[in-house]
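A student in our group prepared the protein record below, which I am reviewing. I have pasted the whole thing underneath without changing anything:
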Amino acid sequence: MSRLSSLLGLLLCASMVAGCGMFGGGPKAAKPGWKSLSLAAAPDANGNSALAVDVVLVKDQAVLGSLLAMPARRWFEARDGLQRTFPEGLTVLSVEITPGQTIRLPRDRFNSGKAWAALAFANYATPGEHRQSLPLTQDQCVLQLDAQDFAAIAVKH
């Protein structure tokens, strides 16, 4: 009986470890599947001021945790240094959008290989995180930029 319970315990431990990604069950890098990535600014976006937005494809898993906790203001302060430190680890698509404007980013801007995650940072004048995770596997994604914050909306077809 002790051999059976030892075997069951070993199987339980193995399945728990596998669930944590040790045997390939965890997150994987993926090429963005976007056919369209658009930014739509409300007429009163950012207090009626232009807004810098960066879409960041994170290709180095070691950087991901830091970026997921980084507010936009810190991102914009550290962006140049991060790009120098991790030249192959980040692809940054920078745009500036004015209130009431809609921009569709060209599809070829995201075809730079696989990424662990995609994040958007918006440099609002108001305090806040102003960071969103973007779904890599959706056909279309829209960044809806409002007066004081923004949302990433996945569009299914």
Notes: The radius of gyration is 20 Å. The beta strands are 36-41, 51-58, 90-97, 102-105, 117-122, 131-134, 140-145, 150-155.
